[in-house]
Write a structure and sequence with these properties.
single chain; alpha/beta; Rossmann fold; Alpha-Beta Plaits; 2 domains; seven-stranded mixed sheet; 6 helices; 28% helix; binds arabinose-5-phosphate
Length: 234
């Protein structure tokens, strides 16, 4: 997959417009994080300004601030039992529509919201499609600060050298007050096994593997939009 291809603002807007077709008045909507999700939140905000009645459950403080500014009323996972539809981006999408997420750092809240949703809609440029998860070489995981060092050692021992995510010389702190390890991976032969192994590490509270969630994946290929037909699903 070419790293040169990136989702243009026009592509993101086209994906966002299509995702809006999955939203109805009165619904609770999960609001993702990142470029594509931001385009959706902006499009949803325009609809809300025109009278659409929805509540949003944001996956990050950045998305919450954006949505609030657009007049979208917000709820937290505490307030609702289910979310009608969640809309988010992804960093890798395999042919079964399993995902890697978290390059933007919001993986834990994103997974909470996605798993609460009756329908999960993923918006992505075609550059995010990979033959096998891990192809882009990076899997983010979230760890509590107290356990950062042992988590690093345990992840390294599994064979996935981790790098503490930093920005301007300081560790990146998530909206949950945690730290991020970017694990160096290759194409993953057994993502479910890796998920189980990682989640067994005390202090590791989330991974960027989004497996078996059966999202509806909308893909922008630079000229047109299509819905992914996942392998193994009717
Ligand atoms: C945020 O943590 C991520 O999971 C994003 O959803 C993902 O990185 C996709 O973002 P873009 O739409 O910005 O590529």
């Amino acid at each position: 997959m070419s790293e040169r291809l990136t989702l243009t603002d026009d592509g993101a807007a086209a994906l966002a417009a299509e995702a809006l077709r999955h939203v109805a008045s009165g619904q609770v909507v999960g609001l993702g994080t990142g470029h594509a999700a931001t385009a959706f939140v902006r499009a949803l905000g325009a609809r809300v300004a025109a009278g659409l009645d929805v509540r949003g459950v944001p996956t990050s403080e950045a998305t919450a601030a954006l949505a609030r500014g657009l007049g979208i009323k917000l709820l937290s996972p505490d307030d609702v039992e289910t979310i009608d539809v969640a809309v988010d981006g992804a960093d890798e999408i395999d042919p079964r529509a399993d995902l890697i997420k978290g390059y933007g750092g919001a993986l834990l809240r994103e997974k909470v919201v996605a798993t609460m949703a009756r329908r999960f809609v993923v918006l992505a440029g075609a550059e995010k499609l990979v033959p096998v998860l891990g192809t882009r070489g990076r899997l983010p995981v979230e760890v509590v600060p107290f356990a950062a060092a042992p988590c690093r050692r345990r992840v390294e021992a599994l064979g996935y050298p981790p790098t503490l995510r930093a920005s301007e010389g300081r560790p990146v702190v998530t909206d949950n007050g945690n730290l991020l390890l970017d694990c160096r991976v290759g194409p993953l032969a057994d993502p479910h096994g890796l998920e189980a192994a990682l989640r067994a590490i005390p202090g590791l509270v989330g991974t960027g593997l989004f497996l078996g969630m059966h999202p509806t994946v909308l893909v922008w290929d630079g000229a047109r939009l299509r819905t992914l037909r996942p392998e193994g699903r009717n």
